[in-house]
Write a structure and sequence with these properties.
The protein has 18 helices and eleven strands. The protein is globular. The chain folds into three domains: 215 residues, HUPs (Rossmann fold, 3-Layer(aba) Sandwich); 41 residues, no CATH class; 76 residues, no CATH class. Strands 1, 2, 5, 6, 7, 8, 9, 10 and 11 form a nine-stranded mixed beta sheet that branches. Strands 3-4 form a two-stranded antiparallel ribbon.
Length: 385
């Protein structure tokens, strides 16, 4: 039976995600962001409960996407995920959602984006002062008229996955499932928007029942709950720390530093620093890297390991196979990491995550348990694979 990877956030896991997993014929390995996500903010629910919900909703194995990949740009997020799944040595394919559902168009656009003629066209567009997403789309349209595949968020990420497969010469076979409904606004029961769900208190009917039970009582985390702690760190940061941040080239870091020292809210900081060229999400991601202590140099390091968060019996077999065949260590939660510096980055992130709890700040809790789903019962056990 083939093994298929999915790079995801599950923030939260809902019916649309379960639908994608049902469309996969094979063992399903989900590489999921931890407690902070690519949009530059804390995940609404902690990684442990989200991983548990995913296994209850159809996944066989949930691994934690290493921190420096989880909070990277779309390109870094995709390349990091493809790199981990490839290095496991036992994953056959990569499945991703897309609004278009047209794999040929997605792959041909990815091929174009890796050419020198595209880079030349992109530099020309950026010189006009437009944002990177607009410059990229304009460059593609100018070269062959296929810019439409870069208009929707899942299509854009799908192109990045295919770019990563090509760039890394990965044996992963790309496959796509058409993403129906609006990415930001849909409240269709079978295709809800995760963005909309994060604004709602009740999710009955929008997430699988087993996942809903896993979510019951789980504390929610928001930017607003930890905003003062975040601002305090930003105001105390020295200039050298701002200069070392990723995504802060061309003087953006200095502009952001002045905003952090002058404004009273994160929204006001972003408003003061944004421009036509710098997207809101890029600024949020830069601020998150500041909070987590991630420099440009750190973000360029390849992930030294990947951690198991949840699995069933089929997932356990994948872990054993990866440990035999792969080139990346696969660790149980709580297991000592081979790279102490990287492990300290993860520890810091998980400790800070508790400050974003809506109810009250949480104490840092060592993540030492893996959720194991048995054939007929589900119970959290320490994994000793």
């Amino acid at each position: 039976m083939k093994t298929v990877g999915v790079i995801c956030e599950y923030n939260p896991f809902h019916n649309g995600h379960a639908k994608q997993l049902r469309a996969i014929d094979g063992v399903k390995v989900c590489l999921m962001s931890g407690n902070f996500v690519q949009r530059g903010e804390p995940a609404l629910l902690g990684k442990a409960v989200r991983a548990q919900a995913a296994v209850l909703g159809g996944a066989d194995l949930v691994l934690e996407l290493p921190l420096t990949y989880a909070v990277a740009s779309a390109e870094g997020f995709a390349q990091g995920g493809v790199d981990v799944l490839t290095r496991m040595g036992c994953i056959d394919a990569l499945c991703f959602g897309s609004e278009s559902g047209e794999l040929d168009d997605i792959m041909s656009t990815a091929e174009l984006l890796l050419t020198e003629r595209f880079q030349t066209a992109l530099r020309s567009e950026l010189a006009s002062g437009v944002s990177f997403p607009r410059a990229r789309q304009n460059a593609v349209e100018a070269l062959d008229g296929r810019g439409s595949v870069l208009e929707q968020p899942n299509d854009i990420l799908a192109v990045e996955y295919c770019k990563a497969i090509l760039r890394l010469q990965s044996p992963l076979r790309p496959m796509t499932v058409r993403r129906e409904g609006s990415y930001h606004e849909s409240l269709e029961r079978e295709n809800p928007s995760a963005s909309m769900l994060r604004t709602m208190e009740r999710w009955h009917g929008y997430v699988p029942q087993a996942a809903l039970e896993a979510y019951a009582g789980a504390p929610r985390h928001t930017v607003q709950a930890g905003e003062r702690a975040w601002l305090a760190l930003l105001r105390a940061m020295p200039e050298a720390a701002f200069e070392a941040l990723p995504y802060g080239s061309e003087g953006l870091w200095r502009k952001l530093m002045h905003a952090c020292r002058a404004e009273a809210t994160l929204d006001a900081v972003i408003e003061a620093a944004k421009s036509k060229r710098y997207t809101h999400t890029r600024l949020k991601r830069l601020l998150l890297c500041a909070l987590l202590g991630l420099s440009a140099q750190t973000m360029e390091r390849p992930a030294p390991y990947v951690r198991v968060l949840a699995l069933n019996e089929r997932g356990a077999a994948v872990v054993r196979e990866a440990r035999k065949r792969g080139s990346i260590p696969v660790l149980n939660a709580g297991q000592s990491a081979p790279d102490a510096d990287y492990a300290e980055l993860e520890r810091r992130a998980d400790a800070l995550y508790g400050l974003f709890c809506e109810d009250a700040p949480e104490k840092p809790v060592p993540d030492s348990r893996v959720f194991v789903r048995k054939t007929d019962a589900c119970e959290p056990l320490h994994d000793t694979l």
